[in-house]
Write a structure and sequence with these properties.
Blueprint: E1 2-11, E2 14-19, E3 25-28, H1 31-45, E4 51-59, E5 62-69, H2 72-88, H3 90-112
Antiparallel strand pairs: 1-2, 1-5, 2-3, 4-5
Amino acid sequence: MGVFTFVCRNSGDEWTGKSVSGDLEASAGSTFDLQRKLVQTALSSDSSGGVQSSFSFVTPSSAVFQVIVGAPAAAAFVGGGAASAPSGGAAPAAEEKKEEKKEEKKEESEDEDMGFSLFD
């Protein structure tokens, strides 16, 4: 598994990204294109599996971009756990919705029994 961290800067019309450790770098006209090129650059150094990436602006003209190569098992585990959660908790959620509807109906009926109207 490889973790690549890039410092990205904008100078005029061009974004550049340089690796914090190593000689990897790329440049492009937009942050989107820069991210694609930096992922390809990271994959040229380490192509051991799936890719995860994160892009965060620090200032309007600088950002940090991190590429993680070779971590597909963790992503599959997180996705699988999230998918199974709603099926196990569907019944209690349905009961809560029914209770909320009953409470809303009670509140509406209390407002009607005050004996006056807003428009009188």
